[in-house]
Amino acid sequence: MPPYLSFLYLKLNNRNQDMHAERAALAAFFPIVDWLKNYRREDISDDVFAGVITAILLVPQGIAYALLAGLPPQLGLYASILPPIVYALLGTSRTLSVGPVSVAAIMIASALTAPEISALGNPIQSGLILSAEIGAIMLAMAMLRMGGLVNFISHPVLAGFTSGAALLIIVNQLPQVFGVKMPTCALDLGCYAQAVGSFSAPTLAISLGSLALLIFFGSPLTRLLKKLRVNLSAITAISKCGPLLTVILSTLAVSYADFGGNPVAIVGPLPSGFPSPHFTSAHLETWRLLLPYAGFIGLISYVESVAIAKVTANLRGEKIAPNQELIALGSANLTAFLFGGMPVAGGFSRTMVNFSAGARTQMAMIIAATLLGLSVIFLSASFANIPKAALAAIILVAIFRLVRIKHILHTWRYDGGDGMAELATLLGVLVFGIEQGITLGIILTIASHLRKTSQPHIAVVGRVPDTEHFRNIKRHSVETWHHLLLVRIDESITFANVSYIEDYLAGELKRQPNTRHIVLILSAVNDIDATALDALELFNQGLQAAGKTLNLSEAQDKVMDKLEKTDFFEQLQPGKVFARTEDAVKALG
Amino acid sequence: MPPYLSFLYLKLNNRNQDMHAERAALAAFFPIVDWLKNYRREDISDDVFAGVITAILLVPQGIAYALLAGLPPQLGLYASILPPIVYALLGTSRTLSVGPVSVAAIMIASALTAPEISALGNPIQSGLILSAEIGAIMLAMAMLRMGGLVNFISHPVLAGFTSGAALLIIVNQLPQVFGVKMPTCALDLGCYAQAVGSFSAPTLAISLGSLALLIFFGSPLTRLLKKLRVNLSAITAISKCGPLLTVILSTLAVSYADFGGNPVAIVGPLPSGFPSPHFTSAHLETWRLLLPYAGFIGLISYVESVAIAKVTANLRGEKIAPNQELIALGSANLTAFLFGGMPVAGGFSRTMVNFSAGARTQMAMIIAATLLGLSVIFLSASFANIPKAALAAIILVAIFRLVRIKHILHTWRYDGGDGMAELATLLGVLVFGIEQGITLGIILTIASHLRKTSQPHIAVVGRVPDTEHFRNIKRHSVETWHHLLLVRIDESITFANVSYIEDYLAGELKRQPNTRHIVLILSAVNDIDATALDALELFNQGLQAAGKTLNLSEAQDKVMDKLEKTDFFEQLQPGKVFARTEDAVKALG
């Protein structure tokens, strides 16, 4: 029974309850119970410190990723308050920071600008419906115990996709950096040059200043502070303040400097106060149109979140439960929907900031989200003047390290097939679009995997003299019969390998053209799927047309049960089904 | 060496050539050589008969499927002349009839009405580019020996897809039957009723008359003629004339009857004469936009063609070569592109007509295509008055049997997972669209397959006393060591199973918390892919954080070669790599 069901079950049957079992089920569904129980005094100071540091990053990131997704800034801020708190209650990672993330944001942007979605003319509604659908999809996957789906997206595909999405984000941000509109130039390079030529000087100045400040707050400042022997937690605190300082300085510049009538694009006014719960209604058709996008965004968000959670959990010897993560992330997205937030996931840069600032538990994220909530209530008026160029610079610096072209070479050197999948995914994302690129990568990976694993072990067997044992004719000296071909198949027969099996049998028949009866020994066959059954029926028709028969022996009970529901045994006639291979030899040999 | 390469190779090196080998290579690339060599006099009469019968079907089908695809009628006719002749030279099926087919036509219609494609405003150009791209994709797949890809689309997915596409075709044809425009009513039923209410009486009369005639020419007429003891080939000839008669009678009705100013939609004028070769040029962007559609249509066309070819080949004990089929179908599509035809594939109804009319070889299709070519040259003026309603009736009768809702129940009873995949594909095609439905079905099938096969055999082993053999501790009484965990993994480690392996190892570590060293025995591991390597690195970090080491033993040379290209061995330190498990026990035990 899944933990959430067993918890409900125990709640409903609380007569004679086993307190211990209830507490275990409660802890499985609310992992927070587990770590709160062992919470120590020194954890508090670590978590408060990490929470404050992370909160400083969350304001600019929340606004920036909402704008990147093509949504108003408040959707990013609202997504940074309650959803991480819901994740803190339900998630199994102690350091994952949940909120708006860059890769999901560019996927949302791609969905919102798709012709059929932009025709709806209501991006806020579409964004909220995406949150709801992503949440519902994740919870449905959890109910179906599909947490293992994370395994079907191989790391090379994920790496190629991430690099491709990051490049798309960079291209998407360049107009903000130059203060121009996104040009529609297709392959005309001169047109791009012209677009860049019409740049806004004050905007570019803010962009370059912001970039310089952010880069300086990276390793140069850390190195400098280390040389000055500043203590480590102070270094961490100072170096994480780059984005906040960038936002403050650039906002001051825009508010007080005079750019001579050359305006710099700013975030603009936000609704004031905290969002109240709200249920967005829309036509069924709107929900249907958005569903495929929600599926892709949800899948990628889940895979990335679990990957990031695993990295940090491994470093601390903790454990991530994939299905519980689906429940936590799904609930966080539904919360985002109810409180006016964009879709959320576990973010790479925000989790790394939280982790490296020393967060011990999700208490750090609860503190960060609370601080953010307070700032939304009391400071939202001052967010209006933040220049978009500064936010673009923050995105560029955060995203730049995700473009890992060299990683493709690295993968290729290790494994050619994986390298090809990584490159194809990257190119697919850039040329065809995000969904198509991921699809291509997954197809290539799984196709090469299936090709490798679609050749089951098959043996032509004969009888060990004076026994009832049948063994491979290549390895043992055994009796065989002129008109009888005994073939043992050592794996389940499925769509992936039935062609190989057919070809194998056809090859054996060609080598032994006098064969009148084939007996398939199915002792090791656990299953025959619908495709394999169709293929066997067709193969049998071919044999009958050539005057030969197909027979089965030693089929397992569950395989017999399945076949008995069909007319396969009638089709086989005059071919027969034998319980023992020895019987087949007696009847046909 | 693939047959086409070996053929070229031999052509280029024709000194000292082995005549026999050249002829074999020639026959592999041009299977026509093979059957022409053994062509007998009685084959000629069979093939001429079947060719004439098939030609009678091809005119209405060619026009009807072009209109279904949203293309002018001549694109269907041109696709029915040279492409089947090219297939006849190169294909390995002796009875497959290649030309415009219904399922590909509805996919083309879906591509041409997609917002980004219809914005191009040139459906003829888009249709021809699809032919070119489908041809190029098939040839590329042949070069990469990807004929086996056909195995990754399971029969339930194909059946669900076919039923869904057939339902879409039926819905698409209903407006033609009633003589109304396709209404845009979404979920408003009253709106549909209103659309049907405005039907054109003469059009509906032609539709119903055509349907009645076509249904009568099916089994009722065959039964009647059998009762009258007409000989069998005459019955075949007569019963296949239904579509032609429908077209002739309905055309006469439209040409000579007076419908009192209520016009019946007709095909309209066609260009006269035979198409000359023509190379359509277009912007690179147009080619790029159409490529994903071409990929899907090409994949489905190939899978359906091979499936149909296999059915007829099996009944005659012949053999289909998947890669050669890719070459033949790809060349046929490139021919369609050059001579102004829509994309082609092997069609179900046309192949069944050809086969049941007694075709022995592709000579039948060469004759049918030649007759069709003559009719295009001399009769195209008379095609203009064919009423669209009669063509819609022909499509409906041909397509109706492809809707097999009961088949889903049938599959479900046999195999629940397969039944679910079939239903999901059908619903996916109807709700989300053709490409999305297929994708969903393939994902479900492969996901359930991967889940079944992603649990490799793993054993904790110990040493058989006084030997250097290591055996499963569950089956043998063996020596073990307190701080040492020896684990043998019996399959390649890949993205599909590495999570399972990790979980297994974590479970063992939990049961034996005193373990200080884990040794993975890799004797049966043929490969470690990039995802698995990443996961092992992360697992090792976790072990190191807990003060434990990861070690390897008995790795195969090729696995060692791959790992040596990375820094994995450095990461393992102080964990080590041992040639023999015995060495590991000596060092760590």
Automatic annotation (TrEMBL), chains A, B:
GO cellular component term, pick one: membrane
Keyword annotations of the record: Membrane, Transmembrane, Transmembrane helix
Cell compartment(s), UniProt: Membrane
Source organism, top-level taxon: Bacteria
InterPro entries named among the record's database cross-references: S04_transporter_CS (IPR018045), SLC26A/SulP_dom (IPR011547), SLC26A/SulP_fam (IPR001902), STAS_dom (IPR002645), STAS_dom_sf (IPR036513)
Record has Cell membrane as a keyword: no
Pfam families: STAS, Sulfate_transp
Topology term for the membrane: Multi-pass membrane protein
Keyword Cell membrane tagged: no
Location of the STAS domain: 474-588
Bilayer-spanning residue ranges: 48-69, 75-91, 98-118, 124-144, 156-175, 195-218, 230-254, 290-313, 325-345, 357-379, 386-403, 423-447
Any one GO molecular-function label of the UniProt entry: secondary active sulfate transmembrane transporter activity
SUPFAM superfamilies for this protein: SpoIIaa-like
NCBIfam families linked: sulP
Protein's name in the database: Sodium-independent anion transporter
Organism field: Methylovulum psychrotolerans
